[in-house]
Amino acid sequence: LSREDFQRIPELAINPLGDRIINAFFPEGEDQVNFRGFMRTLAHFRPIEDNEKIKDQNGPEPLNSRSNKLHFAFRLYDLDKDDKISRDELLQVLRMMVGVNISDEQLGSIADRTIQEADQDGDSAISFAEFVKVLEKVDVEQKMSIRFLH
Amino acid sequence: AEARATSEGQLPGAAAMGTGTPPSPSGTAFEETRLHVFTLDYPHVQIPFEITLWILLASLAKIGFHLYHKLPSIVPESCLLILVGLLLGGIIFGAEEKSPPVMNSDVFFLYLLPPIVLDAGYFMPTRLFFENFGTIFWYAVVGTLWNAIGIGISLYGICQISAFGLTDITLLQNLLFGSLISAVDPVAVLAVFENIHVNEQLYILVFGESLLNDAITVVLYNLFKSFCQMRTIKVIDIFAGIANFFIVGIGGVLIGILLGFVAAFTTRFTHKIRVIEPLFVFLYSYLSYITAEMFHLSGIMAITACAMTMNKYVEENVSQKSYTTIKYFMKMLSSVSETLIFIFMGVSTVGKNHEWNWAFVSFTLLFCLIWRALGVFVLTQIINVFRTIPLTFKDQFIIAYGGLRGAICFSLVFLLPPAVFPRKKLFITAVIVVIFFTVFIQGITIRPLVEFLDVKRSNKKQPAVSEEIYNRFFDHVKTGIEDVCGHWGHNFWRDKFKKFDNKYLRRLLIRENQPKSSIVSLYKKLEIKHAIEMAESGMISKVPSSVSLSDYHEGKIKPLSPTEMENMREILTKNLYQIRHRTMSYNRHSLAADASEKQAKEILIRRRHSLRESLRKTNSLSRERPVLVFYGVFW
Lengths: 150, 635
Description:
The structure holds 2 protein chains of 2 kinds.
Chain A: H1 3-7, H2 10-13, H3 18-25, H4 35-43, H5 66-77, E1 84-85, H6 87-97, H7 104-118, E2 126-127, H8 128-134, H9 140-143
Antiparallel strand pairs in A: 1-2
Helix pairs in contact in A: 3-5, 6-7
Chain B: H1 2-17, H2 42-67, H3 71-74, H4 77-96, H5 105-122, H6 126-131, H7 133-160, H8 171-181, H9 186-196, H10 200-229, H11 235-267, H12 277-294, H13 299-317, H14 320-349, H15 358-383, H16 393-401, H17 407-414, H18 424-457, H19 465-484, H20 492-509, H21 514-537, H22 546-554, H23 562-575, H24 593-606, H25 608-621, H26 629-633
Helix pairs in contact in B: 2-4, 2-14, 4-14, 5-12, 5-13, 5-14, 7-8, 7-10, 7-15, 8-10, 9-10, 9-18, 10-11, 10-13, 11-12, 11-13, 12-13, 12-14, 15-16, 15-18, 17-18
Main location (chain A): membrane
Keywords (chain A): Calcium, Cell membrane, Cytoplasm, Lipoprotein, Membrane, Metal-binding, Myristate, Nucleus, Phosphoprotein, Protein transport, Repeat, Transport
Organism (chain A): Acrocephalus arundinaceus (Great reed-warbler)
């Protein structure tokens, strides 16, 4: 699949984060994704099953664990892949999600506020650990799960 | 009569003889009336005058409620309207010492009910409705049957206790009573749920059930009524009843769909006479209703099916202005009807058709509540096995609690033939008590209950502005991924229907020249619009303001006061883009579609660069594949 194939999906065209979502399917620098890669990305959204306790503690964490779901979301923000969401990256995402009525100033102060609430080590950027901490009360499993093939 | 006879005899006589004064119009040939300078002729305009006054009163009452802005949020409008009706009824009763005009069941069923159902059916989220169709159908049919028979039999048991003085009510009469009181009423449900903004899924379950159970109610009501009047009941009659149910339900739906298609086909040719386009919508849907009623099929299902069918195709054929007209006129009609219904219910309560019996009334109420709760619980356990998203206890509670009775059972009880039902007044009283209880007490308490249950679910509230952003972010991502894997769309039947639809129906029912030009013209529109926006607002500055820069450089961000935080939250809630319709809360009285259209256009404008790139690439890569990127998006 190429990016154009994704952009042909009508509902994705009017999704504000459409571009970012499409990018998430493509591994670094490539323009094509095969079925395996496609599945890998979608596997992040499998619902977490309660009775499926981690059988092998030594094995790799399943893709649909809470931590990996959050990682997926984090990567949507973090374009330059430096494991931090800087103010600019946050502003970009905010601008995408918000209408044309908000001025840059207002948006800037909202972004500042967001960073301030999450930031614990004072570097004016959100690291992955801080991201997880902020969202610890949010029901991520529910929000990032889709029941496939029903 | 004598005067008329003489005047009639006079006329030819006078003509023949040519003498004497011609008879005056009042018929008395022997009186001369002077010319009246000023006359009052009330009987001439009585009927339209009274109708207008009622409607005016209803609308003024509505204005009155909204003057005190907190009132409609505490007490649903339906309660207030009934109170107004009670007041009016009391006044009329006191003034004239006779029972006020009881709401005529014909007026209700033929004039007041259709607009409400039409409005609800036209704006029903069809996707969600069909996805939950199995559940809705299950609740409507089996649930109503369960309720009807349960209430009927338990009331019969109560009647057998001779201490209550009810032994003359037979089993069949009880069953009939049970069947008419178990019907969840769409009007009441709409009126109450509109205020509390539950999520669409829950709303569609309760409301869909109230619509579909009309078929069962019609069948059971007629069945038991005929049984009451027949001497012997044979087994064949029961089977006839079951067959009747299928005919009533399916027949109603078929009539609705057929007329919906005819309406869509008609609007295909109306582009020269745009002005009467809305009329067709209303005429055809009303026609479907009364045609179904003529055959004693389910009129409600017919009009719902008609509205849902029409919605898809008519929207593409009519002009924008006609579409707006249809929307607003429908809302207006349904609003007026609903108001009138509740006022009439209040008025009709006052009067002399009551017979109070503590046991019957209280047990009726009790059994209604118990059987409804039991029914919902048991049915949900069964249906959860088949559902993709099982219904939680909170959902079940709201569904059970939202089973409101209303005007339909009220009218049905008035339609009972008094010859067969000597205790008709008792039934009327019981029905009124149940309706008042559900509308008032359940209607008023459902809102705090919904909030109470919600608070329990999310234990700790994060006082963070970022919460809003993250939540919306996750919703967008999930929606996007769902669209990518076609999660909602890979329903087999839905795909099949879509293919059939595209191949045959759309070609037949939608005007030819639409698909080809819409993409190009739409793209042009977007470009022009963006150009205008840029010209009006000036270039959006990319330079951050000096204030935020200085703060940033200092490395610390000053804490915000609560008011500033409030402002931020307000800004966010107002301006963050909504995700697709699916999880928006439902509100009958506002037309939310405009907001999402605007939003979609904004997003598309912004993304036009990347989309244009992709369009160009696909154009160059494969010329045979039609470029339908935008068509699917825009209706």
